[in-house]
């Protein structure tokens, strides 16, 4: 048994907050009866749930981890570039998974995919403070002043304000950076604002998840235990 609004979200018609007005408008039926309460428990295998008269079959809820290589753009489709979707086994195409946030074309490392719209939204929302940890090679040497500037929250060259982040110098031309948001090319732009050009970037961790021994270009499906911990981390 599971909540109706969670089932609807997993079917891909919207996040839980987005399906609320659909429920209120009477667009959802369970076994032919209009149901407006998203907290109602249903058995997808035994109930007929429909959206505007169209029966929803549901999907298996999945979360996938990819060790992204460089050279792929993070998008579901692109007219000119190879996307990260090309790296996923065909069995996940029917599950309609989407990337959780994005890594730019040159950045490697941990990238999640899911077909749970609500989980995706919460993982990328800055208010949930899911840490994303990167290893960077760069020009110059990070100083104590740079560390302090990251902690206080940087203002980028175009005026964009970043939340507090962690910069940990590892040695000449090497640093570890932790952010809890995902602005466009954020880590590269943050380092550039302090006079350091990133020459290599790898995301090594998101939340409690690490690459472990996953080979570059390979994928693995998260276990139900790991997904439950993800849910808990974003209060889902």
Give the CATH H-level superfamily of the largest domain.
Pseudouridine synthase I, catalytic domain, N-terminal subdomain
Uncertain runs with pLDDT below 50, 5 residues or more? none
Counting DSSP H or I runs of 4 or more residues, the number of helices is 6
The end-to-end distance, rounded to whole angstroms, is: 16 Å
Rough shape?
elongated
> Helical proportion?
10-25%
Main pleated-sheet profile? 9 strands, mixed
What is the typical, i.e. mean, pLDDT? 92
Strand share of the residues? 25-35%
Let me know the number of strands: 15
* Domain count: 3
Q: If you consult CATH, what is the topology of the largest domain? A: Alpha-Beta Plaits
The computed structural class is alpha+beta
The CATH architecture designation of the largest domain is 2-Layer Sandwich
Determine and state the CATH class of the largest domain: Alpha Beta
Radius of gyration, taken over Cα atoms and rounded to an integer in Å: 20 Å
User: What's the helix-strand series?
Assistant: EHHEEEEEEEEHEHEEHEEEH
